[in-house]
UniProtKB/TrEMBL annotation:
The keyword Magnesium does not apply. Residues 8-368 form the FAD-binding domain. It comes from the Eukaryota. Keywords: FAD, Flavoprotein, Oxidoreductase. This is FAD-binding domain-containing protein. GO terms for biological process: secondary metabolite biosynthetic process. GO terms for molecular function: FAD binding; oxidoreductase activity.
Length: 428
């Protein structure tokens, strides 16, 4: 296919944000290549919750219907959490209410999401088993990706979509030694349990309606049904955080290990009837040592290299908002790069606009996510109910209600005012 632009793009990382970027950019006729380190055979089989802002971004990028078709619900449903005491008798503390005009959201099995997006891509666009080791700016101003297999790829623009342990972020930060990553002494134990199994085991809390957050002291459990998997299942994530320890530097990789039911029970031994039954059935949970970008990045760009998703703002997952911020990044970037007047010579100006809008927004959500986790983990007894009932309302409003189209209008206006884009009858 003939390319519509005089620039080429290399995307480092074929995860959620990298693949969605590739679909939207290649559909617009831009020359794109994705380099993915894995062969996808080790893709973690966890669920991912997508909030209304994530859904709007995916709709705007033209991929949502294909993703939805891989989910077994005809329409995306709301993800309004019930906050329930982890202790007997599991009082409901707060049912989240939103003023968001379109609160449609989706929880989907991550491999199903990736399969759906991959089906929209010409296979020649993506190269697997290509681990990027560094980004280098050549003397002639080209960006080069260097790979572990000794090969090099040159492009006019590099999108770093290589997740929280991003190699591209090192280039953007200008430091090989500091990757701006911390371990806040927080682990997530994850697994899936068939819905029927939990129902038959006598769990009283309704698990197939609203997502549930069982709140406790220093730990909480997120429980929600997920789609895109053959057996109807409940996604379980138990977060345990040691707030007494100082935040640590990045832990040695891998951060995911196999855990046991016993380890989990030892850490959550004081929980009541329903979470205890769930833990009893969470066989061979995986344990994820959760990291976050900290301090947050003031800039997501350097030269013609731009970060999206966790590479830019890997955050604690307590608002289920991490990938939604990534899709917002991708939405704005795609609007800029596919504009009829986007050309190789004005790429730096386009990235500058991206960088004015995205860091304040995504870093704000990163901060709010950390605060939400502390809130959920502050519930020691019934006496804390009133405090949580005051602090929980509204925690998702800024995340979900965000107006992406307003951002697009603002950056285009700025580009016209600064004469990077020329006003013509067709561009107004
Ligand atoms: C326990 C837990 C629960 C979560 N729950 C939610 C949730 O409910 N909702 C939500 O929005 N978010 C959630 N998140 C966060 C969400 O998973 C991330 O925000 C999301 O995966 C980020 O997408 P990404 O494309 O930026 O990175 P990733 O999905 O991590 O993709 C990065 C890709 O880059 C590849 N890669 C890495 N390094 C290289 C390299 N050097 N060269 C080439 N390729 C490379 C990787 O193999 C991977 O395929 C959760 C996270 C955790 C840990």
């Amino acid at each position: 296919m003939a390319t519509s632009k005089d620039f080429s793009i290399a995307i480092c990382g074929g995860g959620l944000c990298g693949l969605v970027s590739a679909v939207a950019l290649s559909r617009a006729g831009i020359s794109v290549t994705v380099f993915e380190a894995s062969s996808f055979s080790q893709e973690a089989g966890a669920g991912v919750g997508l909030g209304p802002n994530a859904v709007r971004a995916l709709k705007g990028l033209g991929v949502f219907d294909t993703i939805l078709a891989r989910s077994d619900r005809p329409e995306p449903a709301s993800r309004l959490f019930s906050f329930v005491s982890a202790y007997d008798p599991h009082d409901c503390i707060y049912n989240y209410e939103t003023s968001c005009s379109d609160p449609a959201a989706l929880a989907i099995y991550r491999p199903a999401f990736l399969d759906a997006v991959l089906s929209l891509l010409d296979p020649s666009v993506i190269q697997f088993n290509k681990r990027c080791t560094s980004v280098v700016l050549s003397e002639d101003g080209k960006q080069r990706l260097h790979f572990a297999d000794g090969t090099i790829h040159e492009a006019d623009l590099i999108i770093g979509a290589d997740g929280i342990r991003s190699v591209v972020r090192r280039y953007v930060l200008g430091s090989e030694s500091n990757n701006s990553l911390v371990f806040p002494n927080s682990s997530a134990y994850r697994g899936l349990i068939p819905t029927k199994v939990l129902q038959q085991a006598g769990v009283q809390t309704v698990l197939t309606g609203r997502p549930v957050c069982f709140v406790g002291s220093g730990k909480h459990m997120i429980v929600f049904p997920i789609k895109g998997i053959t057996v109807a299942s409940i996604n379980i994530v138990v977060f345990v955080t040691d707030y007494d320890k100082p935040v640590q530097p990045e832990l040695p990789y891998p951060w995911v290990e196999n855990s046991t039911e016993q380890e989990l029970k030892d850490r959550c031994g004081d929980w009541g009837h329903d979470p205890s039954i769930i833990l009893d059935h969470l066989k061979n949970p995986s344990k994820w040592n959760i990291h976050a970008v900290n301090p947050s990045l003031q800039s997501y760009i350097r030269n013609n290299v731009v970060l999206v998703g966790d590479a830019a703002h890997g955050m604690l997952p307590h608002l289920g908002a991490g990938v939604g911020q990534g899709f917002e990044d991708v939405f704005l970037l795609v609007q800029l790069l596919t504009h009829p007047q986007a050309k190789k010579h004005n790429l730096p100006e386009l990235l500058k606009q991206y960088n004015i809008v995205r860091p304040p927004r995504a870093n704000g959500v990163l901060q709010a996510s950390a605060e939400a986790g502390r809130m959920y983990d502050s519930f020691s007894s019934q006496e804390d109910t009133g405090k949580l009932q005051k602090s929980l309302p509204g925690i998702w409003e800024d995340v979900w209600g965000y107006d992406l189209n307003k951002d697009v209008a603002t950056v285009f206006e700025s580009l016209y005012i600064s004469k990077v884009f020329q006003v013509s009858n067709t561009s107004l």
